[in-house]
Input
Amino acid sequence: MSQTSDISTSPSNPLHGDAGHGGDHHVHDPHVAHHFDSMGQQVDAGKLGMWVFLATEILMFGGLFCAYAVYRGNHPEVFAYAHHYLDTSLGALNTVILIASSLTMAWAVRCSQLGKQRALLICLVLTLLGGFGFLCVKTIEYNHKAHTGKWIGSANMYHPKYVADKRDEKGKLKAPQEKNEANDAKGSGEAPVGGGVTTPAASTDGPDRSAIAAPAAGPAGVSASILDEDHAKAAHAAGHTMTYEDLPKAEQERVHIFFQIYYLMTGLHSFHVILGMFLIFWLVVRAAKPGDRKWIVPLFPAAMGLFLVYVGIVTHSTGVMISGVVIAGLLGLYALWRVRGGAGESDQAGDFGPTYFAPVDIVGLYWHLVDLIWIFLFPLLYLIH
Amino acid sequence: MTTLTTPQPDLLRAAHYPSTGNYLTHRKGPLSWLITLDHKRIGIMYMIGVCFALFLGGLFALLLRTELINPTPTFMSDANASFNFYNHMFTLHGAVMVFMFIIPAVPAILGNFALPIMLGAKDVAFPRLNLLSFYLYALGGLFFVWVLLAGVLNAAFDWSLAGGLDTGWTFYTPFSTGESTKSAVIPATMGAFILGFSSILTGVNFVVSIHTLRPKGMTWFRMPLFLWALYGTSIIQILATPVLGITLLLLIAERSLGVGIFDPALGGDPVLYQHFFWFYSHPAVYIMILPAMGIMSELISVFSRKHIFGYKFIANSSIAIALLGFLVWGHHMFVSGQSSLASAAFSLLTFAVAIPSAIKVFNWLATMYKGNIQLKTPMIYAMFFVLLFTVGGLTGLFLGALAVNVPVHDTYFVVAHFHYVMVGSMMMAFLGGMYYWWPKMFGRMYSEKWSIISSIVVFIGFNMTFFIQFIAGTQGMPRRYASYPDNYTTYHQVSTVGAYVLGVGMFMVLGNWIHSLRKGRRAPANPWGANTLEWHCSSPPPLENFARTPVADDPYNFKHWHWDETIGGYIHDGKIDPPRKGSGH
Amino acid sequence: MTLLVAQSEPSLWMPSASSTVAGEVDSLFYFILWICVVMFLLILALMILFIAKYRQRPGYTPVRSPSHSTALELTWTVIPTIVVMVIFYAGFKGYLNMATPPPNAYEIQVYATKWSWEFTYPTGYPSTNELRVPLNRPVRLVMQSGDVIHSLYIPAFRVKKDCVPGRFNHMWFQATELGEFDLYCAEYCGQNHSTMLAKVIVQEPTVFSKWLEDAGDVLKGKTPVEAGKYLYNARKCSDCHSLDGRKLAGPSFKGLFGSSHPLRDGTSVTVDENYIRDSILYPAKQVVAGYDNVMPSFQGRLKDDEIAAIIAFIKSLNE
Output
């Protein structure tokens, strides 16, 4: 490993530092912790620490990838059948969102190195918005599955102990157009995984897939059209004809495992996205002018409140919606109030600049890993037949 | 910061006398400990936690052995209650000992204390992460204590708290996910999960510290072997523990949501769980033994007053063990019905991992050859370690050989084998290391006489407890049996008596330590004449160890340290060998 | 030297070697044991020698010695490598033998549940916790588990294999000695793991087939109550249900019939013929309060007239 060259050694006694500890150690940059000799050493340590931590993360996801590989290897039919229930368009949209946010993150690192304070802030906020966008799309996907009996654990209709809960009933009432989907017959709580389940129903009037990929404008625009969509039919239109009956009996009982793996993998990934968003928000605060921080701080929880409102709307859950409104409203007002208290002085700069940008760099590494994992998840879960 | 470090005009000299402002005394009060970022204090706090875990685990072990003193139930007349009690005890014994004692003991106590000083650094790379890691340890420990306490309360008052644990520390599915066990699988796995993160953070800290904080003069191949061992350990902690984490999360999802990945009734595969579990837990064995081997390399070299033999072989074998250790997990499943080919591959790799271990033993012996051996307490433990590790390692050959593995798998032979490795070897090394660094930690010497006597009691007790179990195992005694056929009675009775002797020995060790804290003679800076950097600063070290990053010498070059009768320790003659290129050998 | 060579009689290390694979396993065991003993003694001797010779003491001045020797280190890398490869090969060969049953093997189905073993012979006759096999004939066990993982272990035959729910595992052996041998569950399976024991009885082939023929018909020549009592013991109802009112893992049969019990779900039930039948076939359906749902289902394992016999037996306990 590189030894930073500026470790000064006392000429009088090479083995031990001499007494002059207090004398010359002053030049310390305030950003260098006392136990590091130099900024270079600290940056090396921080970066290496993040790389090592990323290795840990990869191994953690590696466990799930192994579970995926084992089940895919042993039960390929299950995966070939069940993956049609995932919406490729939404998955692709999320891929685009995450790649874009990775780009803005990389850009943010560059800006901090160049000392472009304003551009840095913009890039970080855009990255943060990418995170929110990803979560919004994921909410649509999860919600759709939850409402059509393909939720996690025993709330999955393929699960041997499936009991249709109230949410399914409600979901069907709200979305009657889904009755086409043959699987829904099971949602009404009849015999569990029995016969009569033909997935991709015969109808070929699947929606125009190109229309779904198009609205990259924003997740809100997509939601309505997607909720109406019957993925299985879309899959059928694309030429996949495997039905539930085609599966061997033993494999039929394993269909739910695909969904469990899907939820575990994407759930853990989403959790990492949220964690990354907290880190990026921390960067936003530090990148802002010190005088502005007081009103920026409440903005992130306020945005989380807005996200809750969105979740409430998508899932038809009034409670969630109201709590979101309350959180977002109160914190938004609080932020406004703080703004009126006076803006930051213009000559003050944020923390990051050409001499100190390690935190942006390190959080960037983390965010890229989160993206990278999705880049693997998307084809493995959504695309491979 | 300057105020925290005592300026020392001539550190070389002053180092040999107790300093006034050391890390133990520079600030007082419980709060100054609880929020400390100092690696030495964090190490001491770990010591208290780990010793408490050792006490609990040991207590469970004595209860187990007492239950087994005769073939029928011992404590309770009711057979079912008696079986339940035993099953809970052996589970908690395993879980507490593995997750809270063996894995953290050496890295978290001795590693935390010694690693930064050996690097000539003021602290580990991420001190706050280090403290967080300690609190995660404490939190994970609380989960286990809760499981234990709730189990006891349930038994005593017939309550039905989520408590007790009877799944075995391995949490094998589908037993652990079925309804048949009402025990607190979720809290316990949460505890293990949290402890795993504590372990990961320590590993991250150590790897980064070793990479970035090494002082001038300390090239990779002039690093003390203890650091090499900790480096190998950290790699395992970083790469294996997250797999345990995800496995435990899956188990929790399985139990709470019924996702069915491991449940055959839901289309899952219970053996997959075993693969996942052992992918972590076999390397975890090397988390336990590698640092122990590192301590050995230090002790044997220092107390033979001779440069360690074959430095590079030992250093490389640490890394080889760490890496090969990842590829042998399947040897826990030779009788599970996995394919013969897989079994053969795992068997072959298992034998491969035996080779670097053998190399180390021979190197240690060669270090003693033509040395100037001082049989002080740490060296006695080192000798015990070599013997017990030899037995533990050699009996691994039986288990690695497929045909012999089949009859002895899951019998007391396995129990004896891993206790020889994990208790015999690892705990001997831990105790040896504690005695070795004790003067540095607390600035006090201990009673040499009592420590040697207690070490012999521990050694006898240990062998009495576990050697007989090899025979019980080959005779067919399965493990985890609360009762057993009469023909095994003698083995169990000998073993139980041995366990009491071992228990007495451990209390003698504890008594000796406490006595040393109160009455021990003041320790010199370097009582052993060792040349790793921690012996260059005073005992106990000042808050930030070194005022200025020192320059490292060959860690096994002892010729500049000379015995000084007046201070009862060694003094450096101030000379420095010209730095040589390449390895220290 | 009787200590360290393979033999069929019980020795210090090993129980009797009573199957065809046992000899091979024992030979390898003793081979490794010899290596271990030699290695251990070598290390011990060197250690004692070095301590004695190079101990720090007045009048002893150590001479400098090298701290590194590639030749020496390679030697003690290569030799152990060769030794362990030999052991690996021998172990693998033996393992393959144990994994490959001869084609003419006699097949017995094994069904493990908490906490008993059920062995079903080709005639369809099931026996509980007692495995009878013919002498000198390869026997192949096809093993399943009804709940958690168990492991079938016969020390005298040196064989062991897990019974994993959701899949079939196989093992085989050929007994070479008449007599009774222990069979253990070697994989922890819950509360009564340590009582999940069975006997292996090796008989002359003619005796064995005679026994199987007679044993096939449980009910013949018995009154229903006698047959029920026989089944109560043979199918190990006795492990969990006492006849004297003691509370074991399940309710006692004493005075059970006609009595009324609260259930776990809060309702209560009166014990009649239908309830007993249901409890045998679907034990999880109505569990009596104060007990765990631990009973395995006997669906497909007890015939209707056998259940009737058990009901008759339980009724008879009220008299």
